[in-house]
Amino acid sequence: MMTVRPCGRVVLTGGVGMLGGAGLDLPYPWIMRNCITIRGQWMYPPEATTLMVGLIRGGLVKLEDLDQANQAVAHAAAHSGPFKMTVIQPG
Fold first, then answer.
1. Fewest 10 Å CB contacts: which of 28, 39, 54, 83?
2. Residue 40 contacts residue 12 (beta carbons within 8 Å)
3. What does pTM read for this prediction?
4. What is the pLDDT of residues 74-90, one digit of tens each?
5. Residue 11: which H helix or E strand, with range?
6. Using CA atoms, how far apart are residues 8 and 5, in angstroms rounded to an integer?
7. Residue 4's pLDDT band (cuts 50, 70, 90)
8. In 3D, which of 90, 25, 27 has the Cα closest to residue 64?
């Protein structure tokens, strides 16, 4: 969070503390001084699954393009760092 520029935006996804565990401590004074916007989203909107199925059925998303997704995740983990990224490019 603290790598965001002044007037930046932080997006939180997932469910920290949703099952009764510890919550997320945020640096409130730093957030206020730097005018940071925080947005939370529980994973994805409810209609996302239906929309994704429609894209797949329409042939706009080909599942075979994701065959190497696990390899890409492993590559990204092994080659992470500033200004580095791993991209899955459809064939």
1. 83
2. yes
3. 0.48
4. 999 999 888 888 887 76
5. strand 9-13
6. 5
7. very high
8. 90
The CA distance from 4 to 10, in Å, is 7
Please, what sign has the CA dihedral across residues 36, 17, 69, 85?
Answer: positive
d(CA 50, CA 57) in angstroms, rounded, equals 11
| Cβ neighbours, 10 Å, residue 36 | 19
State whether residue 87 is helix, strand or coil: coil
Tell me which residue has tokens 């996804």: 13
Q: Is 20 left (phi over 0), alpha (psi -120 to 50) or beta?
A: left
DSSP code string of 19-65: TSS------HHHHHHTT-EEEEE-SS-TTHHHHHHHHHHTTSS-GGG
Amino acid present at 11: V
* Cβ-proximal residues to 41 (8 Å cutoff; 6+ apart), any chain: 11, 12, 13
